[in-house]
C-alpha cells in the first residue's frame, strides 16, 4: 500500500527535500506552505500529516486544532521549537508525536511508520465489536441487537460506526455531520439531531439500553461499556435467537475441549 503524507511547512527547501526522500521511498506526498493551504489539502485524505508550528497566516497549533476535528490520521509536529511548553501545547492541540529540527530522515521515517501502523492496528482491532446486546460488524456494516439484524439507512449506520469506534469520546454535531456527510457538503448540522433520534427509536424496539448519550451543550458520545472484540466467532452466530446461540456456543466450547484433550 502506498501511504500518503501531507507535508506542511513554509520552508520550501525542506519541503522539497522531504518530498524527494519520501517519493524515493514509495510514499505519495502532498504539500502545503502555510496553514490556510493545509486546511484545503486535508480533503485529499492523507495517512499522516507532518506539521510545522511557526508558519505565516496561521501557526501549526491552530491548524492542528482545526483539522483535528476533521481527520483521524496521525499528526506529527515537525519544528525547530524545543521549548517544553510548545511540545505540550502541540500534543494537547491534537498532535500524536513531535520531532525537532534538525532531525534524521531515518528517524522521521521510523516515527511515520510507527504512527501509521499504530492507527492500522487500531482499525484492525475494531473490525467488529460486541457491546452488551449489540453486535457491530464494521466490515459487513451489520448491526444486530439481541439476535435481530437491524435496518439502518446508510447515514444512520455511518453515525453508529463513527461514534462506536470512539466510545466515551464526545463529538459535537458539526464534527459528526462533517464525518458522515463530507467536509464539502452544505447542510444543517441540526440534521444530526433528527438522525440520532431515529437511531435511538429503532434501537429501543429491541433494547432498553441507551447506546448514544447526549452531552448537553456539546453533542453526543457512544456510551463506554467495555466493547469486546470477538475473533473467530462468525457474525451470523449472533443473528440467531438467544437460545440457539447458547447451544452453538456450547458446541464450539465442547469441540475446543475435545481437541485439547486429544492433543
Fold blueprint:
Blueprint: E1 4-8, H1 12-24, E2 28-32, H2 35-41, E3 48-51, H3 60-67, E4 75-79, H4 84-92, E5 97-100, H5 105-125, E6 128-131, E7 134-137, E8 142-145, E9 148-149, H6 154-164, E10 171-172, H7 173-181, H8 191-204, E11 212-215, E12 219-222, H9 242-262
Parallel strand pairs: 1-2, 1-3, 3-4, 4-5
Antiparallel strand pairs: 6-7, 7-8, 8-9, 10-12, 11-12
Number of strands: 12
Rg calc:
22 Å
Could you estimate the helical fraction of the residues in percent?
40-55%
Q: Globular, elongated, flat, extended or rod-shaped: what is the shape? A: elongated
What can be said about the biggest beta sheet? 5 strands, parallel
Count of DSSP helices? 9
Overview of the structural elements:
It contains 9 helices and 12 strands. With 263 residues, the protein is an alpha/beta fold. It has a 5-stranded parallel beta sheet, sandwiched between helices. Strand 6 and strand 7 form a beta hairpin.
How would you summarize this macromolecular structure in one to three sentences?
With 263 residues, the chain is α/β, with parallel strands linked by helices.
Name its key features:
43% helix; disordered C terminus; alpha/beta; elongated; five-stranded parallel sheet; 263 residues; 9 helices
